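Thread: "does anyone have the structure for this chain?"

Original post by V.I.:
We have the sequence but no experimental structure in hand. Need at least a predicted one for the grant figures.
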Amino acid sequence: MHTYVYRSSKKDGLYLYLPKTIDKCELPDAVTQQMGEPELALSFMLTSDRKLGQEDPATVISNIESQGFHIQMPRDIEDQIATIAQQAIKNKHD
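Reply from O.Q.:
Generated one for you, tokens below.
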């Protein structure tokens, strides 16, 4: 899967993985509030056997497939972002 990674302009260490170039209208408001103005950091082919610095590639792929994105966060805001991801899943299924 071709993956685009955006860095947050608001929080160091906060990254957003997407299967296409960003369309902020498609992201939950809570995500865009945390990200600020997303800046493209890199794009690459993501496979389940590709090594990533901090993330499990299978988890990233699963999150992209289920909610349309994956968030890599600094560990100090992990609980906050997990709540946002759960809300996004709920909204997608409503």
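V.I.: this helps a lot. The domain at 2-93 is CATH 3.10.510.20 (NE1680-like fold).
O.Q.: and Residues 73 and 81 are 7 Å apart (CA to CA).
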